[in-house]
Write a structure and sequence with these properties.
Length: about 250
């Protein structure tokens, strides 16, 4: 592509995004009063945050139908927000470049998950990242490969025994004593007693989870309420979220 072509492409992408946003708002206007709400979500948020969130939203907006779009990759969900195919999505900060408005909801720290029958389960001190090099690891394949990439970038080689992008599979393998897993705390069902989360020593930054919309689209009242409910739920779950906003909703 020529320099001129690259320049035109940048502007064309922005124009297309605005046009798609305008089209979505016109469709919403034609559909009548309440309409629906299209929400993107990835697995751990879907399992832990979504049920009480939708329960409260239904109490306020019983006529609003929420369409869920699930994907292990928040990048794909962001693509759909940009194309005006989703009204809102959960995603992890920092975001890729795009027409997004986002606010941080939750800091989700990483923990080392071990079987309840393991001697490590009795450990009271944080496990240091370098100690993971001595343990068989159950790792995510693609969706949450960040922890392993972080370790390798800091010279910590790991022995990966199995890989899966399904949260329950990863936790189940740990429970069966097949290895340990480095996972975001939100991955773990608090009701499970066959696995134990160990605190991880300093070094691995927490996941930052945000709710995201298209900045050129005017959010509906139901969308605004969903954002407010999500903020309240996440604050109740983990204390006040960071007040540093990437772009104000």
């Amino acid at each position: 592509m020529t320099d001129a072509g690259r320049l035109v492409l940048v502007h064309a992408a922005a124009i297309l995004a605005r046009a798609q946003a305008a089209g979505a708002e016109l469709d919403q206007l034609k559909s009548g009063a309440a309409g629906g709400l299209r929400l993107g979500v990835f697995p751990s948020v879907g399992a832990r945050v979504l049920p009480p969130l939708l329960q409260r939203l239904a109490g306020r907006w019983p006529s609003v139908e929420v369409e869920l779009v699930e994907d292990a990759s928040d990048r794909k969900l962001l693509d759909q927000v940009e194309a005006a195919e989703l009204d809102l999505t959960f995603a992890m900060l920092p975001l890729r470049e795009g027409p997004f408005a986002a606010i941080e909801l939750l800091r989700d720290p990483y923990v080392v998950l071990v079987s309840a029958s393991s001697r490590l389960a009795e450990r009271t001190r944080p496990l240091q990242p370098r100690q993971l090099a001595k343990l068989p690891l159950i790792a995510f394949r693609h969706a949450q490969a960040y922890p392993q990439e972080f370790l390798e970038a800091h010279g910590i080689s790991t022995r990966v025994r199995f890989r899966s992008d399904d949260n329950e599979t990863v936790v189940g393998l740990v429970a069966a004593g097949m290895g340990v897993a480095l996972v975001p705390r939100l991955t773990l069902d608090p009701a499970r007693d066959d696995v134990v989360p160990l605190e991880l020593g300093a070094g691995l930054p927490a996941r930052l989870i945000a709710v995201v919309r298209h900045r050129d689209r005017e959010p509906t009242p139901a969308s605004r309420d969903l954002i407010d409910i999500a903020r309240a739920l996440c604050a109740d779950a983990s204390g006040p979220a960071s007040r540093q906003e990437r772009r104000r909703l």
